Amino acid sequence: AHEGILRRQSLRESAARTYARSLPIVPVRARGLTIEGADGRRYLDCLSGAGTLALGHNHPVVLEAIRAVLDSGAPLHVLDLATPVKDAFTTELFATLPAELAERARIQFCGPAGTDAVEAAFKLVRTATGRDGLMAFSGAYHGMTAEALAASGGAQRTGVVRLPYPYDYRCPFGVGGERGAELAARWTRSLLDDHKSGVPRPAGMILEPVQGEGGVIPAPDSWLQQMRELTASRQIPLIVDEVQTGVGRTGTFWAVERSGIVPDVLVLSKAIGGSLPLAVIVYREELDAWPPGAHAGTFRGNQLAMAAGAATLAYVRANGLAERAGELGRRMLARLADLAASHDCIGDVRGRGLMLGIELVDRGADADATGARPADPRLAAAVQQACLDRGLIVELGGRHSAVVRLLPPLTITDEQADAILDRLADAVTAAVR
Ligand code: PMP
Fold first, then answer.
1. Using CA atoms, how far apart are residues 66 and 60, in angstroms rounded to an integer?
2. What is residue 369's predicted lDDT score, i.e. its pLDDT?
3. Does this UniProt record's set of keywords contain Transferase (predicted)?
4. How far apart are the CA of 314 and the centre of ligand 1, in A?
């Protein structure tokens, strides 16, 4: 079955598929951290549905919540009507938000995907400010629809001003550390204040507190605070994209809590749907300038996703899984640092909570002024393959696809964390041989 399904699907499906190209797995069963393929092989899944599975695959509380909706006879699809299931989801979500936002927040259900919520956020700030331009950061990822894509990646696109994101290991200013972050902030300030530069005041600024697809790059708290201050003092709405960092992943329930910044618009998806498709924006009520019907869409009422999401949010909160992710992440990062110390093909290890990245570099090449060596995407792909051979699923990311990313469920045990790192260490050793 395994080979037949793979062959038929690779004939019928577009070559644009991403995960399927590097992961020739046919999953048929899954629980927690583990996926089982049609060939009977078992894998530790550190991709977690691209960071969606806060509680891992098929967590009992998620399954129970879905079953309860099915058994209740509730409609599965309700457009954007009010329902008890939606009410419970919204109440639970608001209970997790920073108090300053929750007190005066509005929510808009945007559709199934993170990119839907990003589009809605852009449209909202444009309507609210009457301005048009956007500011986004180098290496960002916000989605694959037109506007979200324009705000992603390195390419310059009309209407989006791209600003430097603080990246310690490959500092755009060649200095790294706090000083690099300070120079990145100064760049943004001067663009906002230099009226001769021709950059008009934008409708909004969008950022990720930790860049995920961009290579697991955590922004320093001081830089985030400066972005908050710079935007607030110029009446520019700050949109924080927590599609990947949310729901405990980085060690706090929302990643913004660490720096204490309060966004004007919070973009949420992935884990908030408890593994089913759901995306929302939450924003300060003053921004709610939309006339009725201004932002519609058919699939904004997936009751199963709301129920699975509410159960996930409640479980993460009740069991302190954000703190657990922070603590386990620090331990895993310490072990990764040991691994880097004994493998000079590892240029950098970094992350926050259970969002971890290992950057592979060309060990034969010279380091630049800050000690960074050229990225080695071929080696990263070899490590990913060696991981797969050892029953470990990891994803690649980063500017050069040379960062191995780990996004395990927040529910993993210490033993499972060790098993992940044992297999990864073994894979790195095998790949450089
Ligand atoms: N924003 C961020 C930070 C993401 O990581 C992603 C997905 N990786 C998106 C937006 C887009 O979400 P989706 O793929 O559901 O459209």
1. 10
2. 87
3. yes
4. 23
Instruction: With a cut of 70, say whether residue 420 has pLDDT above it.
Output: yes
The answer, yes or no, to whether ipTM is higher than 0.95 is yes
The sign of the CA dihedral 71, 74, 79, 83 is negative
Q: Are 255 and 217 in contact (CB under 8 A)?
A: no
- Return the best residue to mutate from 17, 48, 116, 243 for the ligand 1 pocket (most ligand atoms within 8 A of CB): 243
Closest ligand 1 atom to 113 CA: 15
The residues near 370 (Cβ < 8 Å, ≥ 6 apart) are 169, 171, 174, 175, 176
Q: From 280, 274, 257, select the one nearest 353 (Cα to Cα).
A: 257
Query: How does residue 404 score in pLDDT terms, banded at 50, 70 and 90?
Result: very high
Using the atom order of ligand 1, give the atom closest to the CA of residue 269: 15
With the most atoms of ligand 1 within 8 angstroms of its CB, the residue from 250, 265, 269, 407 to mutate is 269
Q: Is the pTM of the predicted complex or chain greater than 0.95?
A: yes
Q: In the structure, which protein residues have their CB atom closer than 6 angstroms to any atom of ligand 1?
A: 50, 113-115, 118, 141-143, 208, 212-213, 241, 243-244, 269
Q: What is the pLDDT of residue 348?
A: 98
**Overall residue count recorded for the chain in this entry:** 433
Give the CATH architecture of domain 75-318. Answer: 3-Layer(aba) Sandwich (3.40)
Pocket test for ligand 1, best of 242, 270, 352, 355 (most atoms within 8 A of CB): 270
A 10 A CB-CB count for 377 gives 17
Distance 218 CA to ligand 1 centre (A): 16
Q: How confident is the prediction for the chain on average, in pLDDT?
A: 95
C-alpha 262/C-alpha 108 separation (Å) is 18
**Contact present, 355 and 243 (Cβ < 8 Å):** no
* Segment 277-324, tens digit of pLDDT: 999 999 999 999 999 889 999 999 899 999 999 999 999 999 999 999
pLDDT at 154: 66
Residue 405: predicted pLDDT: 98
- Between residues 328 and 18, which one has the greater pLDDT? 328
Which residue has the CA at smallest separation from atom 1 of ligand 1? 142
CA of 114 to the centre of ligand 1 (A): 5
Q: What distance in angstroms lies between residue 212's CA and the mean position of ligand 1's atoms?
A: 9
